[in-house]
Amino acid sequence: MTDPTSIRELGDIPAVEVITRAAVMLMSAAAEKIGLSSPDPDTSEHRDLDEARRLITALAGLVSASAEYLGPHAGPVRDGLKSLQLAFREASVAPDEPGHGPGEKFTGPVW
């Protein structure tokens, strides 16, 4: 089975779209790992906050490194990142101090 986005097709996709697609994938995976797709996130079978931390940190690094290239996409992507950071803090039994949560070394403290 061939990947729907072949290597040849990737050469035709603008960088901003590739970056945005990667950001959306990281956001979706992080939301799943926080449990946000379940009616009760606390009992989600997919909840894994260690994995969510990694995904959110990777997303924050991507967003910080590419913000200047995202144009009109930058605001919504940053908003999605912040929402995930806040959801992570809310889901944590022992929340990190502001400035020490996932990705906050790239974004600064999230309140």
TrEMBL record:
Protein name, as recorded? Recombinase RecA
Q: Where is this region: Disordered?
A: 92-111
Output the superkingdom of the source species: Bacteria
